[in-house]
Amino acid sequence: MRKIKKTIASIILLAFLAPSLVGCGNKLSASGQENGSNPSVPKQINFGILRVPNDEAIAISQKIFDKYFTEKGIKCNFIVFDSGVEANKAFASGSIDFASMGHTNAVVALSTGLDVELIWIHEVLGEIEALAVKESSNVNSIEELAGKKIATPFASTSHYSLLNAIKNAGIEDKVELLDMQTADIVAAWERGDIEAAYTWQPSLGKILKDGKVIINSEEMANQGYVTANVKLVRKKFAEQYPDLVASLIACLAEGSMIYRQDSNEGANIVAKELEIEPQDALEQMKGSIWLSPEEKLKEQYLGNSDSAGKFAAVMKDTADFLAKQGFLNKVPSQEEFSKFINSSYIEEAIKILK
Asked: Which residues share a beta bridge with 228?
């Protein structure tokens, strides 16, 4: 198992070190060209997004991006990634300016030297991610997964939660872990190729049609293993266009506010955007914690521009754990993680929103 893990880790690392071999599935390049009609802004911005029920999905659906970008003559390109692994490859190849991803992939981004920084928490993960087994199985606890095949997207928040769950249960060397994208997990589940999977919505909802949850990410967070979806920005873009970074934060905060003020309205918007049922969208959104910009600046989370919050320690703990499991070759220092989180754009966005 250790050999397999190290091989997979090498493959992941090579992907970051060979940006010419990867891309985001199109011929986009990160913004760099100035806008002819307005030289102070780029012609286009490339956003790497996850197709999940979050503040970004609401902001896109409600055309809030138009207010902050399109009306300034900036074209917004949205590139959908299945996970942060693909988003980090796109950062490495220089094809995107922003990306959403699980915080574990943000850890990988810093550890592998990508020139990016963390500027936002989309949501703290709870029931939206979980470890599921077949309803017909006789498995009712994590310990009973010994000898089973468990799928998860490697280097994801689900992967981090799964590794800690099986470690705490004492079966980390007694299971076979399989690296799969979420769509492949659903297909493998339906074929009967896997007995369990740790994944997120909407793939989690699909496998739960004949499955049951053994443990979810809210329960893992209560054990000290906090996970979250975050937003990263390419540093050179942020240095050139700091006002646009603050504008993006304000844009996302407006999307988040719609859900926090009326959860049913937010769910209806997300359901239309993601082509799912409103009730399913609402259940998925209730499975995570949506913080206000002011809450994100608290010590419990990102902290402010003068003092790093506790989330920097969560990321360092995550890196330490992934390194012990053989998935990271280098662990940045706590100081590097604190500098990696830049809360100043949230502070500027709060001024924009007033």
From this structure: 124
User: How does pLDDT run across 2-15, given as a tens digit for each residue?
Assistant: 333 433 343 343 33
Rounded to 5°, the CA angle 21-25-31 comes to 90
How many angstroms separate the CA atoms of 204 and 283, rounded? 12
- Residue where the block lists tokens 């470890």: 131
Type of residue found at 48: G
Phi and psi angles of residue 30, each rounded to the nearest 5 degrees, phi first: -60, 155
Count CB atoms within 10 A of the CB of residue 28. 17
Sign of CA dihedral 178, 184, 190, 191: negative
| Model confidence, pTM | 0.82
DSSP letter assigned to residue 18? -
Q: Where are the alpha helices (DSSP H) in the chain?
A: 2-17, 55-61, 64-68, 84-93, 103-111, 157-168, 182-191, 203-207, 217-222, 235-240, 242-261, 263-274, 278-285, 293-296, 311-324, 334-340, 344-353
Q: Would you give the end-to-end CA distance of the chain in angstroms?
A: 53
pLDDT digits (tens, 9 = 90+) for 174-220: 999 999 999 999 999 999 999 999 999 889 989 999 999 999 999 99
Helix 263-274 × helix 242-261 angle, to 10°: 120
